[in-house]
Write a structure and sequence with these properties.
alpha+beta; Immunoglobulin-like; 32% strand
């Protein structure tokens, strides 16, 4: 009967030895610090944008205002700063333009602007295919035209440091008001111009 008790007690002794060996060998506080935390880790730096990482505001001007933007030269990707001063905005008919056909979108608007290179490098202002119109009801729509007033200089050109040109940009828009944006590169507009309601 004694042999039977010994064999029955053997698994209990082996289990006790194994448990003691696994749990010994260190401070329980130090071991607790190695255990994973149940609370999720939140990287607060990435969840709140810093002021330096936020995108700069898009300049939006009306008649009499001047917007500055960084122009990217498509030939060599060099950059310079151009300013665009909005001298006037007026709505015209096709008959008032130089050999114009009727507007496809509904209305012609003529923006008289002065473009000036205020930076140190070569810069280009090229509005054709780079102007979109929008308002609170309508998402951005292509508004560029090849139409001309027949007066003033051609602002669609390359500008050396200090050079400027005053001329007209004709846009074709669905209705009066809203804003037109100039897209120097894909993405957000470089600047926007508020259009009068009439």
């Amino acid at each position: 009967m004694r042999a039977y008790v010994r064999w029955a007690a053997l698994p209990a002794v082996i289990g006790a030895v194994l448990l003691t060996g696994c749990s010994s060998g260190g401070d329980s506080k130090a071991d607790a610090s190695k255990a994973p935390s149940a609370a999720p880790v939140v990287d607060k730096a990435s969840s709140t944008p810093s002021p330096s990482s936020s995108a700069p505001a898009i300049p939006e001007v009306g008649v009499g205002g001047t917007a500055k933007f960084v122009a990217v030269n498509p030939d060599d990707q060099s950059k310079t700063t151009l300013s665009v001063a909005v001298k006037s905005v007026r709505y015209v008919t096709a008959a008032e333009l130089d050999n114009a056909s009727p507007p496809k979108n509904g209305h012609y608007a003529v923006l008289t602007v002065t473009v000036k290179n205020v930076g140190a490098g070569q810069g280009r202002f090229s509005p054709y295919g780079a102007i979109k119109w929008q308002d609170k009801q309508t998402a951005p729509q292509e508004a560029s035209t090849m139409e001309s007033t027949g007066s003033g200089q051609d602002v669609d050109t390359s500008y050396g440091p200090g050079q400027s040109v005053t001329g007209d940009v004709v846009v074709d828009i669905p209705r009066t008001g809203g804003v037109v944006g100039y897209f120097d590169v894909p993405g957000d507009p470089a600047f926007m111009v508020d259009l009068p309601a009439s």
